[in-house]
Amino acid sequence: MSYKTLEPFFKPKSIAVIGASRSPEKVGYQLVKSLIDVGYEGKIYPVNPKADEILGLKAYPNIKSIGETVDLALIAIPAQSVPEVLREAGECKVKCVIVVSGGFKEVGGEGAKLEEEVKRIAREYGMRLMGPNCIGVYDPHNKIDTLFLPRGRALRPKSGEIAFISQSGAMGVALLDWMTMEDIGLSCFVSYGNKADVDEIDLLEYLLHDEKCKVIAMYLEEITHGRRFIEVASETSKVKPIVAIKAGRTMEGAKAVSSHTGALAGREEIVEAAFKKAGVIRAYDTHELFDYARALATGRVAFGDRIAIVTDGGGAGVMATDKLTDEKRGVGLKLAELKEETIIELKKHIPPFAIPHNPIDLTGSVTPEMYGDVIDIVARDENVDGIIVIVLIHPPAMNVKVVDEVEKAYKSTNKPILVASTGGEPTQKILKMFQERGIPSYPEVERAVKAMKCLVDRGKYLKKLGKGIH
Amino acid sequence: MSYKTLEPFFKPKSIAVIGASRSPEKVGYQLVKSLIDVGYEGKIYPVNPKADEILGLKAYPNIKSIGETVDLALIAIPAQSVPEVLREAGECKVKCVIVVSGGFKEVGGEGAKLEEEVKRIAREYGMRLMGPNCIGVYDPHNKIDTLFLPRGRALRPKSGEIAFISQSGAMGVALLDWMTMEDIGLSCFVSYGNKADVDEIDLLEYLLHDEKCKVIAMYLEEITHGRRFIEVASETSKVKPIVAIKAGRTMEGAKAVSSHTGALAGREEIVEAAFKKAGVIRAYDTHELFDYARALATGRVAFGDRIAIVTDGGGAGVMATDKLTDEKRGVGLKLAELKEETIIELKKHIPPFAIPHNPIDLTGSVTPEMYGDVIDIVARDENVDGIIVIVLIHPPAMNVKVVDEVEKAYKSTNKPILVASTGGEPTQKILKMFQERGIPSYPEVERAVKAMKCLVDRGKYLKKLGKGIH
Questions:
Q1: A353 band by pLDDT with thresholds 50, 70 and 90
Q2: Residue B222: which pLDDT band, with cuts at 50, 70 and 90?
Q3: Do A174 and B219 count as a contact with CB atoms less than 8 A apart?
Q4: Of A166, A249, A326, Cβ closest to residue B322
């Protein structure tokens, strides 16, 4: 039940901000501001011996003087002063601490020693510690925001079902910012930095029990405890899928990891084997990470590798087919062979010159209704395990109604359906509409195809676990 | 000099629109409208026996009645009537014809016969014919627009240096729309459809002589005359780079090509060998096509495979390094080993805890000025053939000034520099600014790395031709 000890990071009833400041350019100001901006509902205690009030909140000279229970303390003071404050927090029975400050292991020498001390103190008092050198937690559901970057500088995604945990703070912030633009929902974000105490394994355990989270996306540079990682990741991935980037997979990349965090990236073959054993789905770039997570968040998987493609652009259909069936440069899935009765049924709903076999090409004479009818028919074909729907919105009779039509068909089946559409702003609008209705959508056919592969792999994994029976 | 015969497609002094209409939902209306909207400066003659005037222009009952030279005729009437009108155009000495109408080879049987007839007539009268079943030409420099899709439905990119020719009209339109959003400049666009006469080879010859065009991007489904393609593409690629997608590269993809256009996709090994021989750079998806074209449009190439990475996010630097050096999943280039004097010089301009070796990590303490100084120093290192600059805009001291700084350094060197930046709207704005200053920029580090590989390959090719000496 050790994951319970992490709860105050996500659901603290009170937060002390050590190093709170009145100067907007200071981290200690922004920490208080972010908590206010996110609408944190518990008590905030700014701690600063030189201030009476910060951002309208009564300030305290030290933790002791608060005189109330503190669930979580955020620490943003120079590294050398952290041990002393940490002890004070321990004396005051603070449950969890996020050390935002840098200047520890990542700078080597004295910093590394300081980190050992900090670790020891936290253990001594039974406090859970996140960081140092991290940006902590953003949880839009529980309204927690310990990110010291102003909202104008780093956008925050809306609430959703994808948990994102990142060893790198900068990578985390860049991707949160990007997720916001892409309208991708977040269950929670954690940047855990040097992981003196709380690491990716602890977080996996916590997220396994967090109901809001349906998928876990990870950015990792280092896996410290391989065996335990496999153990916990295996348990977790049985219940919710894990997608992970493991950076530093090449010799040169591993060197770069060690020179910027002092961590050992680990041998690529070992990581590969560990991921496979634990059922962790691997992503190789940031788009893949969230393309896969979004597809998995629907809860639908493909229990087979026979995929149907529905398109209104012949060329896009060919490109999708290439990517789908190519073993080397593509994902090596199969183009589903439609049953004779499916083809007969399709012909009733599409123009005579349209193509009723896979890839199904509705041509420029397409209507939104055609998409609804065709997907519905194809989804009922037992030879089809998943459908990729390519929606080019330029043909004369096309309009936003296509979203309703696809959604109707989507709801009438359990099979995974992924949408792809290429084009400018009007296309982007439609992509977002699909996204809002819970249907994963992608700006390039190849990305939808890769995401489908991920659903096929997940289906295979669940089958292996004996969970594949519908 | 046969390419000269194509000039009236791009620079016609007068255009007749056969099948011009007063009804906005008709193709024949939109053809006239698109010419007016683009600001076409020659004469437009709408031809329609039932109208006196169309969109404020005097209409003519037939081509003969125009009584003036017609350089280009656009034909948008039912397929069966095309031969007759084509003969009339021939009699009236029309130089070039774009047959927009469908219903030819792509529908098989009677359509194929009709196409043969159309071909014969054009040849008989010495007219060049584009299509049938195509959307023709959009040339923002010469102000020609034969696209029958309203501007509200299909956006038009700004003028630029990339020519884009596409066998598929739908793919062409979707990508023009996307290019507009991405702010990618176009020298001209051609959709040549069934290529009864004008094909990709003719267009390559024309573009070789078109000064506005610096790079050629192609979407191909079929190469009909392999040997001649290699010949002309080789000549062209000596002068300007060609990047091409060849769809239908898998067995299933090839089948899809033949079922939607009746074309033979050709054996993949042969295409691969032909491209290699002709120096055509291959793209496997639409992002690659334009990512590469944009990098090549700068005119800079890498005369070696030793790449430097400058970043302000450690994680992003590691990801770029992985992609750069990985032979299997990446591009297999080398991380440049910086000279000792470069490192000494770098240390003078970056914080003590920043990383002065490749990948160079400026950390969250980065300033815009640091980018200028560092790129400048690195570009002077003889061990560096190209630079990837990763700009995360979230650190406190970062702002749009970084664009000026990078531009200054960019201008002080001949080596290729590609920028990558991940994030939401503010990041997208910065990416566009780089783009506008002529510095290719990408929303994901991996895409910048792949584009750099393309510049390395182009450098190798030019060296082989004896053009590598600076």
A1: confident
A2: confident
A3: no
A4: A249
Is the ipTM higher than 0.90? The answer is: yes
Final residue before a domain boundary, out of A280, A295, A310: A295
- What is the Cα A308 distance to its own chain's centre? 27
Closest CA–CA distance from residue A245 to any residue of chain B (Å): 9
Q: Assess whether B289 and B305 both reside in one domain.
A: no
List the helix and strand counts (H, then E) for chain A. 16, 20
Q: Are A449 and A331 in contact (CB under 8 A)?
A: yes
Give the ranges where A126-241 is alpha helix by DSSP (H): 169-182, 200-208, 226-239
Give the pLDDT confidence score for residue A234 in this predicted structure: 97
Q: Which of A453, A427, A454, A426 is nearest to A441 (CA)?
A: A427
Partners of B329 on chain A (C-beta within 8 Å) are 284
- pLDDT, tens digit, for every residue of B18-55? 999 999 989 999 999 999 999 999 999 999 999 999 99
- pLDDT score at B261: 63
Out of A219, A284, A319, the one facing B329 most closely (by C-beta) is A284
What CATH number has the domain bearing residue B289? 3.40.50.261
Q: CA B9 to CA B128: how far, in whole Å? A: 9
Residue A30 to residue A25: CA distance in whole angstroms: 8
Residues B94, B160 within the same domain: yes
Q: Which residue in B has a C-alpha nearest to residue A259's C-alpha? A: B355
**Tokens matching residue A170:** 């900068």
Average pLDDT over residues A142-150: 95
pLDDT value of position A310 = 98
Mean pLDDT of the region A83-102 = 97
Beta pairing partners, A244: A218, A282
Nearest CA in chain B to A396: B149
Range of the domain at A171: 2-295
Q: What pLDDT sits at residue A267? A: 81
Question: Residue A22: its pLDDT value, please?
Answer: 96
Mean pLDDT score across all residues of chain B: 95
Q: Are residues A279 and A350 in the same domain?
A: no
- What is the nearest CA distance from B321 to chain A, expressed in angstroms? 5
Cis ω for the linkage preceding A359 (within 30 of 0): yes
Count of domains for chain A: 2
Shared domain for A127 and A251, answered yes or no, is yes
Q: How many Cβ pairs closer than 8 A exist between chain A and B?
A: 223
Using a CB-CB distance cutoff of 8 angstroms, which residues of chain A are in contact with residue B357? 259
What count of residues does chain B have? 470
The predicted pLDDT at position B46 comes to 98
| pLDDT score, position B224 | 84
Quick one: pLDDT at residue B141? 97
Per-residue confidence band for B108, with pLDDT thresholds at 50, 70 and 90:
confident
To the nearest whole angstrom, how far is the Cα of A97 from the nearest Cα of chain B?
Answer: 23
Cβ distance B168 to A314 less than 8 Å, yes or no, reads yes
Q: Which of A336, A259, A335, A281 is nearest to A454 (CA)?
A: A281
| B138 within a domain of the structure (yes/no) | yes
Contact (CB, 8 A) for A416 and A441: no
Nearest chain A residue to B399, by CA: A153
Q: Look at residue B469 and tell me if it is in a domain.
A: no
Neighbours of B120 (CB within 10 A): 13
Last residue of a domain, one of A295, A317, A349: A295
Rounded average pLDDT over A227-246: 96
Mean pLDDT computed over B217-223: 93
Whether residues A132 and A261 fall in one domain: yes
A113 and A180 co-located in one domain:
yes
Is A470 part of any domain? no
pLDDT value, residue B262 = 60
| A261 Cβ neighbours under 8 A, 6+ residues apart | A105, A106, A167, A194, A221, A222, B314
Within-domain flag for A393: yes
Q: Are residues A58 and A106 in the same domain?
A: yes
Residues B168 and B139 in one domain: yes
Reply yes or no on whether the pLDDT at A265 is more than 70.
no
